[in-house]
Amino acid sequence: MTIQAVANHLGVGWDMIKDIQARYLQHCFDKPKLCNLKRIAIDETYLGGRSGYLTIVMDLDSGAVVEVAQGKDAQALVPFWKRLKHSRAKIEAVATDMGLAYIKAVRENLPKATLVFDHFHIIKLYNEKLADLRR
């Protein structure tokens, strides 16, 4: 049903239905609270073309995505670090790939957190080094 159809059915204006919808969507998709985070993962994904890369931060305990940022460098995470600092979350561990930008950013912003490299990237690096030795 369209917004106009709902407005006509209820006998109210289109703008009122649109405002209700906007408030509902804001409630459903508002940035998640960070205060209970303990373990997070940081990774990037390539969207292709002009879109480039997105950096994604995920709560490893719940599986929820807590941040999506444009780019794949340390700058992409600056807004997340600010939100995290204000939340006073006690991050214990951060899983990430072995990119120096992420390692440095984690060490600067979460010096007490344990840094963990994800299994996929460790095996990938191992296979690359093994292939180099065989050549």
Give an account of the 3D structure.
44% of the residues lie in helices and 24% in strands. It contains five helices and five strands; from the N terminus they run H-H-E-E-E-H-E-H-E-H. It has helices at 3-10, 14-29, 78-87, 100-109, 119-134, and strands spanning 39-48, 52-59, 65-70, 93-96, 114-117. The chain has a five-stranded mixed beta sheet with strand order 3-2-1-4-5. Strand 4, helix 4 (100-109) and strand 5 (114-117) form a beta-alpha-beta unit. Helix 1 (3-10) crosses helix 2 (14-29). It starts with a helix and ends with a helix.
Question: Summary?
Answer:
The chain has helices spanning 3-10, 14-29, 78-87, 100-109, 119-134; strands at 39-48, 52-59, 65-70, 93-96, 114-117. The protein is of the alpha/beta class.
Main structural class: alpha/beta
Approximately how much helix is present in the residues? 40-55%
CATH architecture annotation name of the largest domain: 2-Layer Sandwich
What would the principal axes of the Cα set say about the shape? elongated
Largest sheet: 5 strands, mixed
Q: What distance separates the N and C termini?
A: 63 Å
- CATH topology of the largest domain, which one? Nucleotidyltransferase, domain 5
Number of domains: 2
N-to-C SSE string, H for helix and E for strand: HHEEEHEHEH
Name the descriptors.
135 residues, alpha/beta, Nucleotidyltransferase, domain 5, 2 domains, five-stranded mixed β-sheet, 5 helices, 24% strand, elongated
